[in-house]
UniProtKB/TrEMBL annotation:
Activator of Hsp90 ATPase homologue 1/2-like C-terminal domain boundaries: 22-160, 190-323
Database matches in InterPro entries: ASHA1/2-like_C (IPR013538), START-like_dom_sf (IPR023393)
Protein name per the record: Activator of Hsp90 ATPase homologue 1/2-like C-terminal domain-containing protein
Pfam families the record matches: AHSA1
Family to which the UniProt record says this protein belongs: Belongs to the AHA1 family.
Organism lineage: Bacteria, Bacillati, Actinomycetota, Actinomycetes, Micrococcales
Length: 326
């Protein structure tokens, strides 16, 4: 993981994050100063950022929002205070309302980003300066350390490029913590088709099957927040196994970018998971990233032990063939 150190200093009223990257310093600089790249990692998993404006000049401002899995939005703004091209910049970071106006009830802070070359690539040192011990304690208590660490640890795949990051590696499952898992798979095809394949029942029935020998017997889905869905599968021919299904609710839908839903095994008292599907396109390929939130580590391990990753890989391999014929 890129983040190597996070230090909160109550006496100096600072929080300093250090991260090392196997990429040139100029490449890291570009990722932090181009909004379409920045928003691909600035929000932690489950809370992606969208920059609605970005005036990268001294005195200019940037406006952004982060969207929770339930569709709740929180807003922030940067005022650019200092810029030393390719090496450092400083901002006044503030909570904001939906119109970009500062929320004065919440603490503002000065943040600096310093990027320097190393023998292995580049090092980022980001320091946040607080106005009081209370402000530092408040933001650390809100999960600033964990959120910043998880956000920065997403930067590797942006720097490397989606194809280099994921090409030929199949479906990968990473355990993020006791409750969260990240699954990634690169699909050779544009994002609009990958979105359709995840939201149009007739296309879903062609690929979302897991191992060979199964068919999707039911698929009721409308990608609209607040609606219910249901999937069911059954074995075909001599395949062993019993029919099963999942049901749940669509919590958030942003066409061609993000779909969030609960997932519960139909007819059981098993707890539901929260599934957060994200799609990123680059150079004609789409990276599927699925964040899954489990109620606890025991449930997480039980589900992973079923061979879920292998089943997803069989489906994704099938998906590429389906997209080639659409």
């Amino acid at each position: 993981m890129p983040v190597t150190d996070v230090v909160a200093d109550a006496e100096a009223l600072t929080l300093t994050l250090t991260a090392d990257f196997a990429a040139p310093a100029e490449r890291v600089w570009n990722a932090f100063t181009e909004p379409r790249q920045l928003e691909r990692f600035w929000g932690p998993p489950g809370y992606p950022a969208t920059f609605t404006s970005f005036d990268f000049t001294v005195g200019g401002t940037a406006q952004y929002k982060m969207t929770s899995p339930q569709g709740e939005e929180s807003f922030g703004s940067w005022e650019f205070l200092e810029i030393a091209p390719t090496s450092s910049f400083a901002v006044l970071d503030q909570f904001a309302d939906a119109d970009g106006n500062p929320v004065t009830e919440m603490p503002a802070s000065r943040m600096t980003f310093a990027i320097a070359s190393t023998a292995e690539g580049a090092r980022l040192v980001s320091t946040t300066y607080f106005t009081s011990a209370e402000a530092l304690e408040q933001l650390v208590g809100m999960g600033m350390v964990e959120g910043a660490t998880m956000a920065m640890n997403q930067l590797d795949r942006v720097l490397e490029g989606l194809r280099a990051y994921a090409q030929g590696k199949g479906t990968r499952t990473e355990i993020l913590d006791d409750q969260h898992v990240r699954i990634t798979r690169l699909i050779d095809g544009p994002r609009d088709l990958v979105w359709r394949a995840h939201t149009e029942p007739e296309l879903m029935k062609k690929w979302l099957l897991g191992p060979d020998g199964w068919r999707m017997s039911e698929c009721e889905l409308e990608p609209v927040a607040g609606t219910s869905y249901r999937y069911a599968w059954e074995p075909v021919g001599d395949t062993e196994g019993e029919a099963f299904g999942f049901d749940g609710e669509i919590l958030y839908a942003e066409p061609q970018r993000r779909l969030v839903n609960t997932e519960h095994m139909t007819g059981t008292d098993y707890p539901s998971t929260l599934n957060d599907l994200n799609l990123d396109e680059e150079d004609g390929a789409t990276l599927i990233t699925m964040y899954i939130e489990y109620p606890d580590a025991q449930t997480r391990d039980m589900v992973l032990a079923t061979g879920m990753t292998d089943g997803m890989e069989a489906s994704y391999a099938r998906l590429e063939g389906v997209l080639a014929s659409v």
